[in-house]
Amino acid sequence: MTVYITSKHQTWRTIALFLGVLTVLSAICYYAILRLNPTSIYIGALMMCPAIASFITLKLMKRSISSLSWSLKASKYLKLSYILPVCYVAISYILIWVFGYGNFGNQNTITEWTQELGMTGYNTSVVVLVMMMLLAVVGVVKNIGSTLGEEIGWRGFFVFELRKVVSFGSTSIISGLIWSIWHWPIIWLIYNGSNQLFFHIAAFTLMIVSISIIMTYFTFKSNSLWPAALFHSVHNIFIQKIFTPLTSTNDSSSFWLDEYGIMIPFVACLFAIVFWRKAKKENL
């Protein structure tokens, strides 16, 4: 019993150390983003903070970086980590288009894609299809370089530490809430001065906690951080680079669209309930 209590206290100290280091590193990046200029290089540095914080924590706790969940034995969870975000994002935007909260075919985006691909004169459908295919493959692979910086820390380290002391459900919710709060300054930057700031924070938080449940499930089932890194990249690309740019907006769109509207969080939450029940049934 004494050994168990000591181990539990040690785990909580490790978690506290990780969060403390992460807070300091993130504060530096957020200062640059909020006070200097919100450029991609500063945001990229912010996304590296969870990984760096986990490395520093492991070093201070005299544990090896190789102890992180680097390996991957079952490719099944990589496939699912690609398919699932495509499904809930596609369903969300189809509902948005059907109910008129936005419309498929933003001409400005299509024009930009046509110029970027050098496909002037080609049929619009061909341009959209080619760009979507390139983003779905090349874009996702390139973006993993960024999402890996987060996922080494969140799913490669943090959730495994939390699971030592709390249940799967608590691990998913706690990690999801902290992951969401970590993003809040970005939402403040985007919507500061808007009367919908708190709505967008709430919607984003629901989405993050929902996908945290799914990603934590895949992480524990695969015992690897790679499915989460892929899931995160696919989620980002299909929302930020494909479906949101392709949607022309109207007066009600900001309430429904993107990661800060309500449709994706709602649909993702339904998916999360399924995986919550699966984890409970499997005693994960």
How are the SSEs ordered, and which strands pair?
Blueprint: H1 2-36, H2 40-60, H3 76-98, E1 102-104, H4 107-117, H5 124-163, H6 168-191, H7 197-222, H8 226-246, E2 247-249, H9 253-256, H10 263-281
Antiparallel strand pairs: 1-2
Q: Brief overview, please?
A:
The protein is mainly α. Helices cover 79% and strands 2% of the residues. The radius of gyration is 20 Å and the shape is globular.
β-strand number = 2
Largest sheet: 2 strands, antiparallel
Strand order of the largest sheet: 1-2
Oligomer: single chain
Mean of residue pLDDT? 94
Architecture overview:
The protein has 284 residues and is mostly helical. It has one domain (73-281). The chain is built from 10 helices and 2 strands; from the N terminus they run αααβαααααβαα. It has helices spanning 2-36, 40-60, 76-98, 107-117, 124-163, 168-191, 197-222, 226-246, 253-256, 263-281; strands at residues 102-104, 247-249. A two-stranded antiparallel sheet has the order 1-2. Helix 5 packs across helix 6 (168-191). The protein is globular.
Properties at a glance:
284 residues; mainly alpha; 10 helices; globular
